[in-house]
Amino acid sequence: MAADKVLGRILMVDDDEDVLFAGKMLLKKHAQEVTIEKNPQKIPFLLNNYQYDLILLDMNYTDDTASGKEGIYWLEEILDRQPNAKVVMITAFGDVELAVKSLKIGAMDFVVKPWENAKLIETLKSAQNAESMAAKQDVEEESQEEGPMKGIVGSGESLREIFSIIDKIAGTDANVLILGENGTGKELIAKAIHERSKRKEKVFVNVDMGAITESLFESELFGHKKGSFTDAHEDRKGRFELAHDGTLFLDEIGNLSLPLQAKLLTALQRRKVSRVGDHKEIDVNIRLIAATNGSLHEMVEDKTFRQDLLYRLNTVEIRLPALRERKEDIEELAKFFVKRYCKKYDKKSKQLQAGALAKLEEYAWPGNVRELQHAIERSVIMCEDQFLRKEDFSFLRTEASDRHDMAFDNYNLEEIERKVIQEALDKYKGNISKASRELGITRAALYRRLEKHGI
Ligand SMILES: Nc1ncnc2c1ncn2[C@@H]1O[C@H](COP(=O)(O)OP(=O)(O)OP(=O)(O)O)[C@@H](O)[C@H]1O
């Protein structure tokens, strides 16, 4: 960051173009980079594709002028995606109640329009330097958690092995490839490596390769020069440059097409990049961590992933097991999330009953830890009681419950047929046409069977 520019990269979202213009004029004197956006619907795309140090978010949009609901909605969206985002709200109405609500949700601060320039800059500076609400909360939670890696819950054998690998490699600059299904914690592990590395004071730049379009790949990763293509309104640094001296995390690396793999490989081999439209080469010093939910080794065999690129990425390989392969961690994770969400939603502390835990341990968790986290969040919100029971997780279909639905007292075919027909009739409240369609027989065939079974 240049010495006179005390603020980093700022995203400002407001549907009033005059406010955006005034904001940009002021902020660009103090910030490394200022992006303005009129349409809040673009927020998810921007967050997926760019890194911001601060987000200045308007509370009211034309759809819903004075309630502030849209601003709160977008604040929650941002924090869901990036719990550590530093968001400062802008309100034209000085509505204290709403501002307080936004602070409770996790905004760092708020400013009232029309703002005083010096005050706005001061507010942004303190927001940038303060710890985000999520980070504070994590620290609070973590300080109560025993365990070798703060913030990473689980003490089963597979995770302990991963912790020991992290301990060994974090301090080196070795490239790391993290393999695992969606939601297993690949990003969390990547951050843990960064936080234990010599680069921990520097930036961690996350790039979702799955979200970058083929045509924007080079501009996103290597940057562009103003005027190099239609939308290149100003010079822009790419992610490699932004990650200089820090860690570059390339997520969903398996999604890259072969031509893009070749471009990425060249940049990694040369440790230099050129912005699109510029021949100048820029040295980049990065530590590379990549992740994928696919099997790169199989992709190499199928010739859809370059072997030389795989070898460049996987100096160290960490395989994160699916949650169903490490059921021993479910209890600890579930309790951790119960605590987190009781706190977040201001609910009295709750306990998981044994039946509920058994249900969680039996479920296959195709979405892994992320799915468990959401299941617990949902049950904490819905449950008024002090105990979380298995019924609070009835939305999870376990194999046993599926088996139970299909359970028969015996295997006598005649009786099974009678029971199935009765169930189909009950389901459609006696409607013969619908029941016969579901049973896969004609109406006449169903009538014959009703007669046979005396239904
Ligand atoms: N061991 C863990 N302890 C606490 N939280 C965890 C753990 N593992 C995963 N999580 C949480 O689960 C969610 C998903 O984790 P993360 O984003 O790291 O997974 P991922 O493998 O990178 O997912 P994807 O492949 O979908 O990008 C996050 O909210 C993360 O904080």
Notes on the protein architecture:
- Residues 152-381 form the Sigma-54 factor interaction domain.
- Residues 9-128 form the Response regulatory domain.
- It holds the Pfam family HTH_8.
- The protein has 455 residues and is α/β, with parallel strands linked by helices.
- The protein folds into four domains: 7-134, Response regulator (Rossmann fold, 3-Layer(aba) Sandwich); 158-321, P-loop containing nucleotide triphosphate hydrolases (Rossmann fold, 3-Layer(aba) Sandwich), CATH 3.40.50; 324-403, Helicase, Ruva Protein, domain 3 (Orthogonal Bundle); 408-453, Orthogonal Bundle (Arc Repressor Mutant, subunit A).
- The chain is 45% helix and 14% strand.
- The protein is built from 20 helices and 16 strands.
- The protein has helices spanning 17-27, 43-49, 69-81, 96-105, 117-129, 133-144, 157-169, 186-195, 217-222, 239-242, 258-270, 296-301, 307-313, 330-344, 354-362, 368-382, 399-405, 413-427, 432-439, 443-453, and strands at residues 7-13, 31-37, 54-58, 87-91, 109-112, 176-179, 204-208, 223-224, 236-237, 247-251, 272-273, 282-283, 287-292, 316-319, 351-352, 387-388.
- β3 (54-58), α3 and β4 (87-91) form a beta-alpha-beta unit.
- The chain is globular, with a radius of gyration of 27 Å.
- Bound molecules: adenosine-5'-triphosphate.
- Adenosine-5'-triphosphate is lined by residues 152-154, 180, 182-188, 251, 293, 333, 369-370, 373.
